[in-house]
Amino acid sequence: MEVDIGNALAEAADPGVDRSALEELDERVAAAHERIERGRADGEFGYAALNLPERTDPDAIREAVAPVADAETVLTVGIGGSALGARTITTALGPDAGANHLVLDNVDPEHVRRVLDDVDLGSAAVNVVSRSGTTAETLANFLVVREAMEEAGVDWSERTVVTTGESGPLAELATERDLPRLAVPEGVPGRFSALSSVGLVPAAILGIDLDGLLAGAREAADGLAPSLFDCPGYAYGATAVALEDRGATINAFMPYSERLEPFAEWFAQLWAESLGKDGRGQTPARALGATDQHSQLQLYRAGRADKLVTFLRPRERPEQRVPDVEHDDLAYLAGTDLGELLDTELRATEASLAEAGRPSVRVEVDALDARGLGELLYGMEAACVLAGELTDVETFTQPAVEWGKAAARDALAGESTERTRTLEEKSELHVD
Amino acid sequence: MEVDIGNALAEAADPGVDRSALEELDERVAAAHERIERGRADGEFGYAALNLPERTDPDAIREAVAPVADAETVLTVGIGGSALGARTITTALGPDAGANHLVLDNVDPEHVRRVLDDVDLGSAAVNVVSRSGTTAETLANFLVVREAMEEAGVDWSERTVVTTGESGPLAELATERDLPRLAVPEGVPGRFSALSSVGLVPAAILGIDLDGLLAGAREAADGLAPSLFDCPGYAYGATAVALEDRGATINAFMPYSERLEPFAEWFAQLWAESLGKDGRGQTPARALGATDQHSQLQLYRAGRADKLVTFLRPRERPEQRVPDVEHDDLAYLAGTDLGELLDTELRATEASLAEAGRPSVRVEVDALDARGLGELLYGMEAACVLAGELTDVETFTQPAVEWGKAAARDALAGESTERTRTLEEKSELHVD
Question: Could you give the residue numbers annotated as active site of B?
């Protein structure tokens, strides 16, 4: 992984960061690195996530899923961090870009019904993921899936793999029905668990190279260093914080690769839930190049100067020549390749922002293979942990989601609590 | 369509708008409405988009696509406004939620290759859309598709429909090869063209109820009125502007419906390209409920107070009972339905934001059918045009995207221009 922060410097952009300010910030990066290394060494909550490349045992995962390894389709039932990492990995690396990995990460009844009608429940593997084993959406969906399998005459207990914590309804069920069961690693929040069984079960079933993925991540882990100038993940995290402090309160995250579209969603959760607290944190805006040049670029270049645009690009792309055509207006396409076109668009968009003084950062990997993706996942996690240290937030918790969860639970249970009263006493002004 | 702005009032949120400030703003809404009606009456550029429900002839579209009406799959080749409206409509209303509508709206060589390998080119309809007929991505992709069809022994001219302007390479090609051809309506920017042939060709081929869609939009058009208190689209647009002026520089757009996921993308283009100019405009952040409660809600509730959250919900949902389970921790799920769960989560999330003083607006339609979607599309377009009037920007142009387009063209043509020199003289600071 390589990070180029040239277009985020004050000499190129406003907001932008001085080279001298970056040198000063680097002293805080060194201190933060020390803190992070201490957390890793002690296996502290959250910091432990950065040890996953060493800790995760791909053989154990492959062994656990062996009973369903014949499946051509995986149906993951999970939400948030229990689904995004797995989806990101199978789309980036899976056969057919993850089309054989279906995810129920929402409780839209129509969508759930359609997925269940489309999938061959007799041959699919069902991958249920919830640390607590009580996540409302996941458990409700799993109950529906289980019933659908029963109705289809399929023994669900033969096709289901469970990833959960040490106790709770899912753990009990796994014991009771002797299901293949994987542990959610201790001390690792959901959004940091892509490189554990939480993110790797579907990949293992679909034959993705877990060893390469972990090796790439290990390489990134080995590259952690006490200076942003020596460590690409830290360079990204520190630059993002410096830019946020100077007004770039939005991080428009724009991979130039269809296979990395879910990576932008994964990043959005990582960034938002980890850093969005205490009245601060950049808002991630997911985008996709080149498509969103035709949707968001007008705003990025000419709207409020409150954005850092992050470009993400694999250097290797397969060839696809653009056939020649005889027309003056299209002469410039002669002899090009789609990949060349895509990369040229990235460079032009980057220059277009720089020309307007808008900051951007470019992140690159040599190729979008298992190693490259492992590096990227780990690099962005390190960036996020560093950003949390630099902004002094509790990176690994998400206290602000609890109120809503509890309110929904109370309301569904038909209880009258202070929370359900807030629901009922909503301020209203209707226009129809 | 109904809009509830209760949770965006100052009595509920900060940023929030006073009822008295809203009354004052309403005088400007009246003036803006007059301007909009004048623009509509004169068929002025941009304003003409709000006449599409009257102007679009669904019979003419159905007739034009008759030669390929046997197609079970539509492959749209277009980008930005030439793809998003069509995708939005087929996903919301199409059989199998638009799974039979494939879109090439990017030039990622691997993705293009995979789509072409998966689709049966002999039976699909190819829908090429570009106003100018010179859009780089669209023309490059179309050339690749055409070659693939030839290689598969398919006469591409028998399976291709073209939607383009009066002149340009695509128009010439259509004449030369006698292709079914539809016109991009005059005076309608791409992002406002969903309710014209630009957005309706795939829907027509897939048998979607164009008449219902246009009837719903007509209803919304008939409902335009000189007060935000009488017109839901204007209520939304005016509230968004009032909130933006008070610090809500981000619009997190969050439908609670899988079928409306592309609607959020369509909205993001509409909002960003129309209003993102002169150093202002809200940045749209696309989200999806309930999924993103587990990804973005922490940030929305506890991060910077710079967001308006827009909830979007169809009132009708199909039934899907959650099977009973005997477990104390899951007792609250007993007797629920997935739709009830989803709606309860929306209400809880809305209340959770209100409880933290963060503003939101709720937009609802009775059902996600053709009428409801027509209303929504038109309502949001009206909201956007009103917002443009209130913020005094050139709503219908997108000048800031031109620099990058020209730079890419120059670079691909191998020319050395001031623009390509900007590309080459990029500021760099690499960390790897």
Answer: 273, 294, 405
Residue B162 has, within 13 A of its CA and on its CB side, a CA count of 30
CA distance B426 to B127: 38
Nearest to A272 among B105, B299, B427 (CB): B299
Cβ B204 vs Cβ B58: under 8 Å: yes
- Kindly report the length of chain B: 432
pTM for the predicted model, two decimal places: 0.98
- Is B177 in the A-facing interface, judged by CB distances under 8 Å? no
pLDDT in tens, A320-352: 999 998 888 898 898 899 999 999 999 999 999
| Nearest neighbour of A303 by CB, restricted to B277, B330, B413 | B277
Contact B275, B236 (CB under 8 A): no
- Nearest-5° Cα angle at B371, B370 to B374: 85
What is the predicted pLDDT for the residue at B190?
97
Q: Domains in chain B, start-ordered, CATH in brackets? A: 2-37+214-391 (3.40.50.10490), 50-208 (3.40.50.10490)
B367 contact A CB<8A:
no
Neighbours of B335 (CB within 10 A): 12
Residue A4 CA: distances (Å) to CA of B78, B188, B394 = 31, 40, 35
Q: What is the pLDDT of residue B95?
A: 87
Closest CA to A231 of B352, B231, B431, B419: B431
DSSP letters, A35-100, are HHHHHHHHT-TTGGGGGHHHH--HHHHHHHTGGGTT-S-EEEE--GGGTHHHHHHHHHHSGGGGTT
Minimum-distance CB partner of B169 among A134, A268, A327: A327
Question: Between chains, do A306 and B249 touch, taking CB under 8 Å as contact?
Answer: yes
Which of chain A's residues have a Cβ under 8 Å away from the Cβ of B336? 140, 412
Give the gap in angstroms from C-alpha B280 to the nearest C-alpha of chain A.
5
Residue A423: its chain B contacts at CB < 8 A?
Answer: 347-348, 351
A294 assigned to active site: yes
Cα–Cα distance for residue pair A238/A224, rounded to 1 Å:
13
Q: Do B403 and A301 lie within an 8 Å CB cutoff?
A: yes
ipTM: 0.98
Q: Is A273 a catalytic residue?
A: yes
How many CB atoms lie under 10 A from the CB of residue A416? 10
Q: Is the pLDDT of residue B326 over 90?
A: no
Q: What does DSSP say about strands B181-183 and B160-164: parallel, antiparallel, or unpaired?
A: parallel
- Distance, CA of B180 to CA of A307 (rounded, Å): 43
Question: What residues does A77 pair with on adjacent strands?
Answer: A104, A128
Residue B290: pLDDT over 90: yes
**B138 neighbors B130 (Cβ within 8 angstroms):** yes
Is B355 in the A-facing interface, judged by CB distances under 8 Å?
Answer: yes
Interface with chain B: mutation pick from A7, A295, A415, highest number of B CBs within 10 Å? A295
Q: Is B400 on the interface with A (CB under 8 A)?
A: yes
B356 touches A at CB < 8 Å = yes
Q: Band of the pLDDT at A428, cuts 50, 70, 90?
A: very high
Give per-residue pLDDT as tens, B145-185. 999 999 999 999 999 999 999 999 999 999 999 999 999 99
Residues of B in contact with A147 (CB under 8 A): 323
